[in-house]
Each structure stands twice: as structure tokens, then as C-alpha cells.
Amino acid sequence: MPFLRSLFDKWPQNILRPVAVNVLSAVVLFLLAVSLKPLVFSLFQGPQLPEYPLFCTAEPYLGSGNREMNIDFFIINRTGEPRTREQLIRDLRALNPDADRTLSPDIELELNREGEVQVLQDKDFNSGKGRLRVVRDPEGQKIKIIVDRIEPRAILKVVIRVSGVRFVSRKLNRGVKGEVGRVLRNYEQFQDSCYTEQ
């Protein structure tokens, strides 16, 4: 019992002082970290590069017929400002200081297969969100989507309907990229940025 008696007699020295030092050290380190946060972030943060305001994604699903697949192709404005075609061209010029490379805000999709392919803009879905045009080349192997205007944080939709698709089963089991890749040859390049390099 002499050990317990000496511990309780000297508890301010043996217990309270180390705890107080640890708590005080933690508070000082926390305040130092909070006050130096902007400096640390500025030292380790990469350069702020401009980002193109649009990106695209696609969602395949089975159509109403036995051998029909639909792809909803979405164009998304990730900014809080409306964009016109002219503004998109300016955005691309800011991203591309190299005059040898020509970038266009038009989305030029290449079809991977021949057959019955219909391309329609979803006017009900797009109502109040912006304007776009869909142009198909005379040979029918390319689709050009021209965004004339898109509202802030808006999503525009184009439906690509493909007939005559052979399914192993009635489930779309190859994943989005695989199923969309059956129809659109160059889909992956539009996932990060919705523009065409000419």
C-alpha cells in the first residue's frame, strides 16, 4: 500500500502535469495547423487548369422490340452559368493554345455498325434546359450533335435507337462501355470532355 499512498500524495506531479502538457500540446498543434492550412494547400496544390464546362455520358437499355437497344446520350453542363455555342468555342480556345490543333464544341459520334439506327433529341426532356441540333451525315455513319445553348447545371438528352441487335440474353451484361461501344466507335473520348478534335 505504500505505492498507492505515494501515488495519491503526488498525483498533481505524476498524473495531472503530464495530462495537462499533452492537452496543451494538442491545442497548440491544432491551432498551428488551422492557421497554416492555406499556406500548406498553396504549396502542395497543382496548377489550376481551366476545365471544359460540358461532359457526356451514355446509358444503354433494351428497347421495346426483341432486337432493339436504346442509348440515352447525355450532355451535362457542370457550371452554374449558361453556355452558348460561341462561349463553348471561346472555352476551347482557352484550353487549347496550340493553333495546330483545332477543337470543336460539336460532338461527332461514329457509328460502329450499319443497320437501322435512329437518332432523336428528347424534346420533352430538353424543354427549358437548352437547344441542340442533331445532324446525320449522308452515309449514315456519323452523328453530329451541335449544342446551341445549355442552361446552368442542365442536362440535354439525345436518344440513339438501334434495331437488329443480337443479344445473347435479354440483359445488358457487358457494362455501359461495352454495350455503348457496340454502337458508338468513339464514345470513350467524350466521357471526360464533350468536344471533338478535328
List keywords for this structure.
198 residues, alpha+beta, Immunoglobulin-like, 2 domains, four-stranded antiparallel sheet, 33% helix, 30% strand
Reported by name, the CATH topology of the largest domain is: Immunoglobulin-like
What profile does the largest beta sheet have? 4 strands, antiparallel
The CATH class of the largest domain is identified as Mainly Beta
- The chain-level structural class is alpha+beta
User: What is the C-alpha radius of gyration, as a whole number of Å?
Assistant: 29 Å
Instruction: Give the mean pLDDT.
Output: 80
Distance between the termini: 88 Å
Transmembrane segments: 20-44
Keywords: Membrane, Transmembrane, Transmembrane helix
In short:
It is built from five helices and ten strands, in the order H-H-E-E-E-H-E-E-E-H-E-E-E-H-E.
Architecture overview:
- The chain is 33% helix and 30% strand.
- By secondary structure, the protein is α+β, with helices and mostly antiparallel strands.
- It folds into two domains: 2-44; 54-197, Immunoglobulin-like (Sandwich), CATH 2.60.40.
- The chain has a four-stranded antiparallel β-sheet. Strands 3, 5, 7 and 8 form a four-stranded antiparallel β-sheet that branches.
- It is elongated, with a radius of gyration of 29 Å.
- The N and C termini lie far apart (88 Å).
- Keywords: Membrane, Transmembrane, Transmembrane helix.
- The chain crosses the membrane at residues 20-44.
